[in-house]
Input
Amino acid sequence: MEAFDSLKQSFLKALETVFKEAELAELKAEYLGKKGKVTQLMQAMKDLSPEERPAYGQKVNQLKNELSDALNAHKEALENARIEAQLATEKIDVTLPGHDMSVGSSHILTQIVESIEDLFIGLGYQIKEGPEIESDEYNFEKLNLPKNHPARDMQDSFYIDPNTLLRTHTSPVQVRTMLEYGGSKPVKIICPGKVYRRDDDDATHSHQFMQIEGLVVDQKTTMADLKGTLLKLAQTMFGPDRTIRLRPSYFPFTEPSVEVDVSCYNCEGTGCSICKHTGYIEILGAGMVHDNVLKMSGYDPNVYQGFAFGIGVERIAMLKYGIEDIRHFYTNDMRFLRMFNQ
Ligand code: DAH
Output
């Protein structure tokens, strides 16, 4: 009996010094494991006389239960302490102000493109895209700009090989779409995208910029449709009171061709530095699709007519927001970009 008691005491003493769950497992093995001290006491029962065994067995069992209850209680206490400690370090003060998450926003050029897309989708147009690496045939020849045509100089180009270049305008998407439609379906598309020219970069020139091309081909398309469409575009971009003016111009892919001006949004037409005292600002080029262009892309000019226009996206943004240097769009100065956060 004394041995039982001292075993229990030594166990309880050892238990007091245990603070880790791993050590607890060791202690358990030492006393209650297969070769543990309590197990040994149980095995000693076989050396006793049959009369002594029941009382002894009861005692060992009781000891075993006491030790394992104490073990379990200690284990639970350790677990609780661990959770408490964890909670204390991970405590969140929900009353503290939150961290400001900084999220990006659309680039101003994307915003302009999207607002023009919205307008034209509303007018029943589809949005088409084409490759930035383009063939000479689509970029020039099928737009009525044969080799050695002087107007090619207007678009000094980055050639990759004699037949391949970075597209100088979005007009080749016209050609691609007409060829795709096979000369028999009406076309009503706008084509936003990047274009490239061999220009020296300065405040108003960039070797890469963005355009949006528009093309409508159908059997009763007139210049009045073109004018109405462009008036709507000008008013969407520069305000509902704007008027437009068409001036004769020249593009190889349109005949007749026009340069389109919008009435000055700054001085309402009375003359200021923005409109160079003319009351109007040039915003885009347009015209009726040249018969040769229709023919080369499979449309019969006796049946189909069309109009086309090309807008410079940066130019629209510069006019709309009074941006004086085109390079601001590409240098990603956060102070500039943040001005257009939406
Ligand atoms: N492609 C012309 C350019 O890059 C812009 C343009 C003018 C497009 C008249 C057209 C158009 O579709 O009809 O300068």
